[in-house]
Amino acid sequence: MSEVPYSNKRPQFGNRFLTEEDNVFEHNAWDDVEWDEVQEKEAQNKVDKNSEVKLETDVIEKYEKEADKFWDAFSIFIRTDFSRIGIDFSTKAIDILKTTKEYDENRCKAFVLDATQNNWDVPFEENSIDIIVLIFVLSAINPEKLQHIVKQIYSYLRPGGLVLFRDYGRYDLAQLRFKSGRCLGENFYVRGDGTRVYFFTQDEVKSLFEKEGFEEVENRADRRLQVNRGRLLKMYRVWIQAKYKKPQ
Ligand SMILES: C[S@@+](CC[C@H](N)C(=O)[O-])C[C@H]1O[C@@H](n2cnc3c(N)ncnc32)[C@H](O)[C@@H]1O
């Protein structure tokens, strides 16, 4: 089984803040850690290094064309408590969701959709959806196609409707850990199991949504320091969390 490429688990999250007096190895995790210029530079150096070699165009195209197959394979390992997916382009992910006992067609509809398609064939009207939740979804998609997806999202949300976004941030541990030879494009990589991942900055997220007319409600970098106390390792996680509203 391949490594689960992301985690929504929030270990002891909340409000443990690291101060100069604290021993960093005293706890498993610290919230809202500050990054200084040196750390930022070191992270950029690692990214430069693991992005030096780009994959061949035909390999990049294969991952683009067959993306659903790779997510299908990944979805076999998805936990079945995965109750928030309504739309996915992995047939397997949708099948798994539909077999959970909580799945109730009267309250929720799950269906397969490739969100990069020009026209969405969906069982609801434009201007009708209250909330769209994008949790670790946009990072799985070719960044060149994201603007179109955000445009579609805008058209299906009702005026006043919200998008809730949480995804990988630039220089997250997962990005710095990539070895050379996995890079598809700037800040875009392919994992060993064939699934792809993009790492966002706050500004990119802002621009994606504001370009389509959304109003920003929140856009923050959630920076957590996770500590392996046994091996005295420090692991910096970065996620972007944002909320955008379609004007009334
Ligand atoms: C990292 S998983 C996140 C799943 C879920 N949101 C969660 O938080 O557990 C990314 C999901 O995006 C889906 N995905 C990737 N490309 C897509 C596309 N073009 N259209 C729709 N869904 C896509 C994958 O099938 C996969 O289920």
UniProtKB/TrEMBL annotation:
The keyword Zinc-finger does not apply. Its EC number is 2.1.1.-. The keyword Methyltransferase applies. It comes from Aromia moschata. Belongs to the methyltransferase superfamily. METL family. Gene3D superfamilies: Vaccinia Virus protein VP39. S-adenosyl-L-methionine-dependent methyltransferase. This is tRNA N(3)-methylcytidine methyltransferase. CDD domains: AdoMet_MTases.
